[in-house]
Input
Amino acid sequence: MQGVSIIFDAQNLIRLGGGLLVSLEIALISIIVSIVGGLFMGVLMSSKNKFIYAICKICLEIVRIMPTIVWLFIFYFGLSRMLGVHISAFTASLLVFSVWGVFEMMDIVRGAITSIPAHQFESAASLGLNKTQIYIYVIIPLAMRRLVPGAVNLLSRMIKTTSIVVLIGVVEVVKVGQQIIENHVFNNNMAPFWIYGFIFILYFIICYPISKLSKKLEDRWN
Output
């Protein structure tokens, strides 16, 4: 079949693999930043300081209300012109996904921490631990189990959403797929179906094991 031959053409596979690596690179770096930054910000947001909570909440709502694609355009087209510096499409993508991930992870961490019963704080304090030690040795380890489902869901969304970076010129897997389709669509009008179907399978292969791992960890900890 012509469609299958398009997908399994060695050159096309190499190009699609290279595009997938770009997508994964953006996702993985953003995920690492999100985990570290979100954990720190989540602890801050769960504190009893109303001013810090209000600032974090406002930032979270701004990030959530504005579509990710608009943030991409703001960072890539707007911020670079405003500052008078060149920001590459790849860098803009990393910035947007990292900011989005940090604030989403912050809210997940906050929810996990605030769901921990008050007696855990009191028991740790009675042992002579200070506030920092209570969070490091007691609260955060307990919260990790509670935040796994939400965190994995966010990570899967980040991986899948990287496909929109094609709109600012990043040559990731969807962009490569478009280029391959343009080269073959005149000879095979089913090329879009086969190429996009193959990209769907690639994303499924990546995201499904993550979902299964989350379920396995959740069942084990329960």
